[in-house]
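Milestone 3.1: sequence recovery, worked example.
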């Protein structure tokens, strides 16, 4: 096959380059829109972070079947993401509506839409999945579920296997984008009105892949809430080298929130994941695995005011347990956290103390953000961690955004972020030593009604990233090197119904990071009828999307450190979606042109693999 470089494939797109659109800031403000979303839409949703009790109604005339005001009760304030105000350039947000219609089948497929992210998957759905960002390997992602840290355990003790996370249980995903890490805050779904909500979903596809999901959520008078869900996924693998797998996810959530000023919540998340053996040409194979992980935690909060401002104390305690019967591994972790914060209209500060009984016994984090004058927003974090083996990690980050004219809604933004670390890459490994590194990004964005452009430059210092154990004996190493990159991102809306969005990233020089191959790019064209806000009762909506992802030749290494080439590829995906009232029918075709490529050497990703199904959400 003759391979064409991604630079040729995206030349036309880059000629009209423009960025992910930042939105106006407020308290716990705005973020750049979710990649691929229409300009301004995700940002507007992200800005709506005031407690429900303080929000103004969107319409002055209520629909005939609307509920009385006393049926709307407060939610627990979101815990985990940084308090605002924050630079819009450093956040990406997917709301519940955007998650539902994103077309992403896994958390990795969602995160790969962020400029610079490369998805590493061992073949087909259900196989180990991680993302690499700025050459950081398993250290690229930190995960929090409603404020509870999902620390790596079991075979993935240095990195989290993203295939374990079910997007169907979430109502919101926020990503704090720093120069060399993605801090991903996952928020579970809940019900805010006194009537039940139920979802039933079914999907099937190639390689005997099937998924089922049922959820039930309700809220009663007095502030008591309940959410339960079960999801089952199974696949036969279906391609050379790949294997079958099955996953069962159980979720439960109970809450008591009688007032916007205090409440408690309990959650339990259980994931059983079984994978059959698979082989990998030239590097051996995997003996398969049968593992189970359970996370349970309770959270309580008390606030001085009902509008989300003022002083607030959150207390969280829980445990995680992971076992792998095939490998004889069993690990547990207990963690507790106390978060004390103060929020004002133009500034906020927060202190978090977190204790664990494993690799990071104590962690203290200080965060602050301010909008001292209209055009300027700054935010910073200082993190000190005490590790086992008398080791310590210290990290500091600072973000700033300046809009020279137009105030916080000005069209032009200059931004920058720096992250300095004296850190241990893998706290669970006692032999891992401290590394010193400083990373930074800087750029500018210009936003208009139809077009937005974002251009940035970054330097990521040399850092020996940890190996992700999810791939077992196929574990891959990541070369230690400093890299300079340039990134262009854009969103273009020529009409109300059509959105073009994408990004292009290229190393400046001969050195590039592992799993960050040169000429990395992603482009999407989305047609959506957008009749939901017009037609009564959200009766109809149709979406058609084409996405292209391309990259050049790169390099990785095996568990012995032997360099292994990463081949270039150009991958085309299709998606169709039809929404009828509460039901959504969808069809996706991955790698439509049958491109032969293997993010994990020897484990080929299948060509022209489709998944289709229906999601139906209704109120009883």
């Amino acid at each position: 096959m003759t391979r064409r470089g991604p630079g040729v494939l995206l030349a036309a797109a880059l000629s009209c380059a423009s960025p992910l659109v930042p939105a106006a800031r407020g308290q716990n403000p705005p973020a750049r829109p979710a990649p691929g979303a229409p300009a301004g839409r995700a940002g507007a949703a992200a800005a709506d972070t005031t407690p429900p009790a303080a929000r103004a109604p969107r319409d002055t005339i209520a629909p005939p079947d609307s509920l009385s005001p006393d049926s709307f009760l407060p939610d627990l304030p979101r815990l985990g993401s940084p308090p605002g105000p924050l630079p819009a350039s450093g956040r990406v947000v997917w709301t519940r509506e955007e998650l539902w219609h994103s077309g992403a089948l896994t958390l990795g497929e969602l995160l790969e839409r962020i400029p610079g992210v490369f998805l590493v998957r061992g073949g087909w759905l259900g196989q180990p999945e991680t993302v690499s960002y700025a050459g950081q390997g398993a250290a690229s992602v930190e995960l929090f579920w409603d404020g509870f840290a999902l620390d790596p355990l079991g075979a993935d003790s240095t990195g989290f296997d993203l295939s374990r996370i079910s997007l169907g249980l979430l109502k919101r995903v926020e990503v704090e984008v720093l120069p060399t890490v993605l801090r991903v805050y996952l928020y579970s779904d809940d019900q805010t009105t006194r009537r039940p909500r139920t979802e039933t979903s079914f999907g099937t596809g190639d390689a005997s892949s099937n998924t089922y999901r049922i959820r039930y959520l309700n809220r009663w008078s007095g502030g008591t809430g309940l959410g339960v869900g079960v999801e089952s996924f199974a696949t036969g693998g279906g391609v050379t080298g790949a294997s079958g797998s099955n996953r069962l996810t159980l979720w439960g959530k109970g809450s008591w929130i009688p007032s916007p000023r205090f409440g408690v919540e309990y959650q339990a998340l259980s994931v059983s994941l079984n994978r059959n053996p698979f082989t990998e040409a030239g590097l051996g194979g995997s003996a398969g695995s049968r593992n189970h992980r359970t996370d349970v935690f309770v959270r309580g909060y008390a606030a001085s005011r009902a509008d989300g401002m003022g002083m607030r104390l959150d207390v969280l305690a829980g445990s995680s347990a992971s076992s792998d019967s095939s490998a004889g591994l069993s690990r547990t972790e207990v963690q507790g956290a106390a978060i004390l914060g103060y929020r004002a209209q133009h500034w906020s500060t927060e202190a978090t103390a977190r204790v664990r009984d494993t690799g990071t016994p104590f962690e203290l984090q200080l965060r602050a953000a301010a909008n001292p004058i209209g055009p300027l927003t700054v935010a910073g974090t200082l993190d000190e961690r005490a590790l086992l083996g008398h080791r310590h990690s210290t990290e500091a980050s600072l973000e700033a955004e300046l809009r020279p004219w137009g105030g916080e809604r000005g069209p032009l933004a200059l931004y920058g972020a720096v992250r300095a670390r004296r850190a241990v890459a893998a706290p669970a490994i006692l032999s891992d030593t401290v590394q010193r590194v400083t990373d930074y990004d800087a750029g500018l964005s210009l936003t208009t009604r139809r077009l937005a452009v974002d251009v940035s430059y970054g330097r990521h210092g040399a850092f020996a990233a940890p190996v992700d154990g999810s791939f077992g004996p196929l574990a891959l190493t990541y070369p230690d090197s400093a890299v300079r990159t340039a990134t262009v991102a854009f969103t273009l809306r020529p009409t109300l119904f059509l959105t073009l969005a994408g990004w292009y990233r290229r190393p400046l020089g001969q050195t590039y990071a592992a799993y960050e191959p040169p000429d990395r790019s992603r482009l999407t064209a989305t047609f959506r009828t957008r009749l939901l806000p017009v037609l009564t009762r959200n009766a109809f909506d149709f979406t058609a999307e084409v996405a292209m992802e391309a990259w050049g030749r790169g390099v990785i290494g095996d568990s012995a450190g032997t360099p292994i080439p990463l081949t270039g590829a150009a991958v085309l995906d299709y998606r169709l979606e039809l929404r009828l009232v509460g039901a959504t029918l969808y069809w996706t075709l991955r790698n439509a042109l049958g491109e032969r490529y293997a993010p994990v050497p020897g484990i080929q990703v299948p060509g022209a693999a489709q998944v289709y199904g229906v999601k139906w959400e209704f109120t009883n």
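The chain has a mean pLDDT of 81. DSSP finds five helices and 34 strands in the chain.
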